[in-house]
Amino acid sequence: MNSSSLSALERAAGHQQRFDVSFAKYFAELAGDLNGAQLGRFPPRCLELLAQLSLRGGKRIRIALLYEAAGLVTRDEVPGLAEAALSLELLHSHALILDDIMDDSPMRRGGPSTYYACREDLPNHPQAALGLAMMAGDLAGFLALRVLFRAELPADRKQAMIDVQLGVTTDTVIGQALDLERDVNSSADEELLETVCEYKTSRYTILAPLRLGLLAAGQDLAPHEQSLRRYARLAGLSGQMRDDYLDLFGDPAVTGKPEGADLRAGRHTYLTRELLALTSDDDHDTVKSALGNPDCTPRTIDRIRDIAHRHNVHTRLQKAIDHHAQAAAAEAGSWHRHWNDEAVTLFEQLPLWGARRKR
């Protein structure tokens, strides 16, 4: 890795570390800022669960993208970025909580999912446990917008940033509905997989922080919109495929998720699509029987991993991951002619780094 790319990734890590400090401070002050947050047992528990999930790690990729998007335009301090960062990560917590409810996932980021923590709190009241988890997710979504509304910015700039985030919240819900449709559709094709990725990853994880950072820095988005969309789509596809890859080939101690979680949940991912398309006879039956079986044993997951290796599924999927990452890097490379080279370099490097990440 050359010195410029190392500097870009170190800069991204710095954004993430500084944000973690500010995120912890935000939650420390939040209870006193919310009317009724200390009433009863459930409101403070709801806030506590949200803080636990939000502060328990995560890649914080949106934070790096946000700050470096502003850095494309200027290296001066940019008002509104701190609020935009909080908004992005609160919305991410909202999405994670809903995803874990939808998938009945027991773990998230190396600890219990919010839904399972609520089930542990209320073992004799399953409906209340579900409701409490949903309230924690709703709280995160509403706080994501609240923090932007309170930002001290010129009215036109704040409105433009709020409009972006309002669009993202809508896209996220649409993406989650499409996610459900994909997983009950046994013949989900590549077009549906890409549409889910567009709404759940590309627009929400990549395009939104790009837009917010550029808007905060005073950049007119119109001349760059198509290039930003292409970059987000390509980087999003690569990132989603890598997530799918890590479900079977990742280390649970690093990913924070049990291996084979997508298989057990019956998720029709890029990985499961490749497995079903390339296998036949007993191998195909083994994969098919594990898909959607929550009681699938670790031994069966090991067998499916062996099947994937024999059919070169891991190689084929990684090749597609690398292809999209390289295309995204090339798209970012075209930005050198009108934006700061140092920040552009990070956008070139991030998809390539993401294509080989371990979590």
Automatic annotation (TrEMBL):
CDD domains: Trans_IPPS_HT. Its cofactor is Mg(2+). It holds the Pfam family polyprenyl_synt. InterPro entries: Isoprenoid_synthase_dom_sf (IPR008949), Polyprenyl_synt (IPR000092), Polyprenyl_synt_CS (IPR033749). Keywords: Isoprene biosynthesis, Magnesium, Metal-binding, Transferase. Belongs to the FPP/GGPP synthase family. PANTHER family: FARNESYL DIPHOSPHATE SYNTHASE. This is Polyprenyl synthetase family protein.
